[in-house]
Backbone:
């Protein structure tokens, strides 16, 4: 089985590749080849039992997708995207990569040939939804994004469903929750603090909390995100029907609940490294974000999270990123 | 006020132009110029108190929209589309006109200049919805189209909302019900019989009914459709917020109720010209179509139908198309 990953150098892409390399297989099939594409070269994994090709460059350029499809990969993970903040600041770039790039990829698949029908897993986002929301967003709630990024993702979902209905590919779109705990350095994303208030204190560093503790949000661990991608790539799509874009399961938690979990798992002293510094600008942005979902359909289709509680989310981070230890 | 109409030669476009010419104004403003564009030249209206320019050609070609926008029309009606059957048969043409053409128009508006922000009225369709449906589809139901046409319209809606949110234009998207009674010759559209079983008998001709009388569908007269367009062009958009695509009000009626109305308005003899000829293929297509909506938001925003009952729909046709007389 040949797997092609777009966006392989990103955080979720790297975690996915690690898992695929460790497993050596995807579902029932042994992996025979992997192609990793991103705008910057992805790190080539070590100790791999199959050939891995690394390709770097802009994928929203005519001919790039065609070339990567020449060997007819069986499964394509499409994780490539301009993130929300940048897509909002650079209108043309966001539409060019997130809309045109996605469409060029789907068209390249369509035009490859009559017998080619790969599984395509597309990472969408809960940014396809826009406030005001019901208390828990159900599977049939409409998509009225409030960012160009969410608009582009919603368009990608529509294309994925139509290209699948037409028989050009076997697409599954998954709307990932906010990934928590996101590893790496603090960044300027408005959502950064949801991970920062856990990740930084666990490493002995101070973190800033810009919103009040009653802010509720929708989370999943990186391990869950990778699990969703693998399941989307291997599930029986006969059950999914024409509605191919699914809100993934997650945990709805307030910031207060996140902090309580941190205290339980790592102690009061660690949680004391969180400094309250209210920021009206960030609070305003976050107020428009989804708080909770009823992801019934995805659960019925076999998507499961790796965590049952927020304590688990913290433990997964300590396990995967900190070698089992944190700074008490 | 300068008005530009894309799709001016189509059925709804012609009715809209007739109404604008008769009124001589749009809302509070006198019309000073009208530009009519379509792939074939629209008929130039007679006895007009303002200059009318007719332009013919493919609008999904670079430069065409820019040229038509050179005089900065205040209101743009975008009714141009490849219809559902053709968009399904010709994948590339449907995407090129319905998606690329719409995006090229919106981008041409965006790039015209900082102070330009026209009102843009976009005709979407109830084809953005896909079965299974609730008994009445509410304003927050999700869009999962089952045709490429509906996919392209749903994408147009997303673009319209994002380009409006960004401040490039003042867009309003309206999802028209099936237009009934559609004037003109019978066509091969699967929905054709909804109009045919009324229009043909009223002209003394036989009509074929391919489905059972309990089939329910969602209708509005051409007069209502024009009323929706005018209201969308003149309403205060402050009230609409970021959710700029609205399901228009209509009448939900079964075929049996349509026929009963025909009997009341035109008599048993006219209704006897309907011949039952069940067609499993058409029945299958129609089974996937919306039956009923709760168009609350549009009503609250001032959209109203010209008809209260199906009898009215028939009377409007007799009045507008048959000079007040039918073949008894």
Residues:
């Amino acid at each position: 089985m040949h797997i092609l990953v777009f966006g392989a150098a990103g955080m979720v892409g790297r975690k996915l590749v690690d898992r695929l390399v460790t497993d050596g297989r995807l579902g029932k099939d042994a992996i025979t080849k992997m192609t990793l594409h991103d705008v910057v070269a992805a790190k080539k994994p070590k100790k791999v039992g199959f050939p891995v090709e690394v390709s770097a460059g802009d994928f929203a350029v005519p001919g790039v997708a065609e070339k990567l499809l020449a060997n007819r990969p069986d499964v394509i993970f499409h994780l490539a995207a301009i993130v929300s903040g940048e897509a909002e600041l650079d209108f043309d770039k966001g539409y060019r990569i997130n809309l045109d790039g996605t469409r060029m990829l789907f068209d390249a698949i369509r035009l490859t040939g009559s017998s080619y029908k790969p599984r395509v897993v597309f990472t969408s986002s809960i940014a396809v939804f826009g406030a005001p929301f019901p208390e828990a967003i159900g599977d049939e709630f409409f998509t009225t994004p409030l960012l160009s990024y969410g608009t582009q993702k919603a368009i990608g979902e529509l294309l994925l469903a139509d290209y699948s209905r037409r028989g050009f590919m076997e697409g599954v779109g998954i709307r990932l929750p906010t990934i928590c705990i996101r590893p790496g350095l603090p960044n300027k994303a408005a959502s950064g603090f949801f991970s920062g208030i856990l990740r930084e204190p666990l490493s002995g560093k101070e973190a800033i909390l810009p919103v009040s503790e009653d802010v509720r949000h929708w989370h999943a661990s990186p391990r869950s995100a990778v699990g969703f991608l693998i399941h989307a790539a291997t599930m029986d799509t006969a059950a999914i029907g024409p509605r191919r874009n699914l809100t993934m399961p997650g945990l709805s938690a307030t910031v207060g609940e996140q902090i309580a979990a941190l205290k339980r798992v790592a102690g009061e002293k660690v949680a004391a490294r969180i400094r309250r510094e209210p920021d009206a600008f960030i609070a305003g942005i976050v107020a428009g974000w989804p708080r909770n979902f009823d992801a019934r359909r995805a659960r019925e289709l076999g998507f499961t999270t790796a965590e049952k509680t927020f304590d688990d989310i913290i433990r997964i981070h300590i396990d995967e990123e900190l070698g089992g230890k944190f700074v008490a």
Remarks:
- Chain B touches chain A through 22 residues (CB under 8 Å).
- Chain B is about 40% helix and 20% strand.
- Chain B has a mean pLDDT of 96.
